[in-house]
Amino acid sequence: MNLSTRQLTDPELPRRVGAVLARHGFDPPLLTLEITETSLMVGPETAAKALGALKALGVGLAVDDFGTGYSSLTYLRQFPIDELKIDRTFVSGLGINSGDSAIVASCVQLAHAVGIKAVAEGVETEDQREALIGLNCDLAQGYHYARPLPAAELASWFAMESPERTQTAPGAAAL
After folding, report:
1. 89 with 68: CB under 8 angstroms?
2. Beta strand segments in the chain, E
3. Could you tell me the end-to-end alpha-carbon distance of the chain, in angstroms, rounded to an integer?
4. Which CATH superfamily does the domain covering 5-174 fall into?
5. Can you tell me the distance from the alpha carbon of 146 to that of 141, in angstroms, rounded to the nearest whole number?
6. What is the DSSP string of 49-80?
7. What are the boundaries of each domain within the chain?
8. Mapping DSSP to helix (H, G, I), strand (E, B) and coil, where does residue 99 land?
9. 5 close to 50: Cβ distance less than 8 angstroms
10. What are the tens digits of pLDDT across the range 96-151?
């Protein structure tokens, strides 16, 4: 689930998320909240406090669109992040543009070096998937796996998918 900058700076966010999880009996580790790089840099102290409280609830935290904003490496140490989501603009160039391939490889290595998962966004081809496997990327998401689905179709999607994909959302897979 994506968080906006405004939501991230709302001091009530952790309480609200906790209340929604409790009300629906939702297991917190099954929820990953995504924050863009630029949102983290708007108010780093406020963001750190909010993310710490959210992490205490047990939810996962991901930096979305990595490489398109400030790309400050400071927040990889400063914030309790679980996943680094590599922006699709770099993933689309895998195997085509050596610069994009180098950036994706560096992002994967960086994520692993600080103990978090690397997630590739916008995977659309088998060649991209294979390149990501070769780079030891942890997870991938994109149209290669599935297009966005209406809620009513989710149950049948999960029933048709292989076991390794049932732990991720439609359009995502462990590599």
Report:
1. yes
2. 32-36, 60-66, 83-86, 117-120, 139-141, 172-174
3. 21
4. EAL domain (3.20.20.450)
5. 8
6. HHHHHHHHHT-EEEEEEETSS---THHHHHS-
7. 5-174
8. helix
9. no
10. 888 899 999 999 999 999 999 999 999 999 999 999 999 999 999 999 988 888 88
